[in-house]
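Continuing the series of single-chain predictions for the mutant panel. This is the parent chain; the variants come on the following pages.
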Amino acid sequence: MGLTGFFLITFLIVHCTLNSMIFFDLYDPNDNGQTFNHWAHLFGTNFFIRAMEYGLFVGLLLHIVQGLILWSQNKNARPIKYKVSKYREGKWYSRSMGLLGTLILLFLILHLYHFWTPSRFGGMAGIHKLQETTLVDYNNQQVHDLYAEMKIVFQYPGAVIVYALGVFALAWHLLHGFQSAFQTFGINHKKYTPLIKGLGVFYTVVICTLFALMPIAIYLKWIN
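Parent structure:
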């Protein structure tokens, strides 16, 4: 569980870095998504990134299966609940990892449907499927215009709200999961644990803030 967690944490850094290229329009209003599309195409055709991408699916499935196994073991360890629970250990989100993980999974399916499927297999998906496919010229070839795709998806307030809620669930999941992954490997010491927890909070705030700002910035037309 900790190993797959580390992998997913690393992938989020890569994914967030790529998506943050959309903010380049704030620096250069004439960019019109060219920088973002350049890096999206580069990452989409890079062998290492593609291998990591498919590894993500395997890691994600393992993470889900392992989570279900742990949930089942914990439940079977005490089939009859305490009548009175005076003291509850940990934060509420550390006791709700299963629920948060389920919400993230549902959000991820929608996210793949909107962006990953069209960019890998062509065409448009989701709530805007009746609109024509967005393509852009890149190195004398037609590639998917993910910048236009984002502008189409996030023109709908419902989509923005769903994505914001998905990122909200991810934030709480990471607040516990980041430090917990280290603890799984025995890195749990009164000298280092506070530093790891602080790093986890910093990581969570930066990653999730950037992810949440993307749909909001497009919907409010801060970008283009």
